[in-house]
Design goal:
Layout (H helix, E strand, L loop, with lengths): L2 E5 L9 H14 L5 E5 L16 H10 L4 E5 L9 H7 L2 E3 L2 E6 L2 E6 L9 H10 L2 H8 L3 H21 L2 H4 L2 H11 L3 E4 L6 E7 L2 E7 L8 E7 L2 E8 L3 E4 L12
Parallel strand pairs: 1-2, 2-3, 3-4, 6-7, 7-9
Antiparallel strand pairs: 1-10, 5-6, 8-9, 10-11, 11-12
Length: 257
């Protein structure tokens, strides 16, 4: 039986061994049963270019090992949107576009990092458009590593401050969710980015949409969604308990349409 697991916002960094260790343990545990794993953005806390591959050899080695039993798919996030072909080749994974549709039991599942659904956050969307342009990327990647690292630190600090100011209406725009779901004829969306966790059953006129939100990982706990035979289950991962799969859904608080 095939099982697919979805995670997001692990935010790995060179100096955080605890976060790295819990993620490595997670990869090792799922290798015996997961057919595919989808990492929906912000695998890394920052990625300043594929010329820094040597700093992340431990993760690359773990992906290479996992790829022998499990397909690895990665959607770029707002922190690691510069992940490129060199990383994908070295890590034996497949890079996906901002949105990707998966057919499961004749239903369409739409996966994304989730930042493109935050259309009420105008300032962020302007920044996103800028850094996703070909011209900006070429210019940025031509700069010295130290200069790029400084930019990443500043962007990270600004992102944290922005999260503090956002209200729930700015996190995800419901009309945007339904617009994108209609575009892909999707009945379910899974995304991360907003650093909260839960499941919401949305209704808009005669339309319905199920949405699973993946929480960001901490040094001790990871959030996941597992699909098996068309059924979705939420789960947590820790070094002490391993993977804990919940029978009852975790409902995202204060989210209504």
């Amino acid at each position: 039986m095939s099982s697919t697991i979805f995670v997001s916002d692990i935010h790995l960094s060179v100096g955080n061994e605890k976060r790295t260790n819990i993620f490595l343990s997670f990869l090792n545990d799922i290798s015996s049963w997961a057919t595919a794993v989808y990492i929906l953005g912000d695998l890394f806390d920052a990625w300043i270019g594929d010329d820094t591959l040597n700093q992340h050899q431990t993760i690359i080695n773990a992906f290479t090992k996992l790829s022998k039993s499990t397909e690895i798919f990665i959607v770029r996030g707002n922190r690691d949107f510069l992940l490129g072909k060199q990383f994908a080749t070295a890590a034996k994974c497949t890079m996906l576009p901002d949105e990707y549709c998966i057919e499961i039991n004749d239903d369409n599942l739409l996966v994304s990092h989730g930042d493109i659904y935050c259309t009420n956050d105008k300032m962020y969307q302007q920044f996103r458009s800028m850094v996703h342009s070909h011209e900006w990327r070429e210019d940025f990647l031509s700069k010295p590593v130290t200069e790029r690292e400084q930019f990443a630190q500043q962007a990270r600090a600004a992102s944290i401050e922005n999260y503090k100011k956002l209200n729930q209406e700015q996190e995800v725009t419901f009309s945007t969710l339904f617009e994108h779901a209609k575009r892909f004829n999707a009945q379910t969306i899974i995304h991360g980015h907003i650093h909260r966790e839960g499941h919401v059953h949305h209704k808009l006129e005669d339309k319905t949409l199920d949405r699973f939100i993946l929480k960001d990982w901490s040094d001790t706990l990871g959030s996941a969604v597992i699909e098996k035979n068309g059924e979705f289950k939420q789960a947590h991962y820790s070094l002490e308990k391993g993977l804990t799969i919940f029978d009852d859904v975790i409902v995202l608080n204060n989210q209504t349409t």
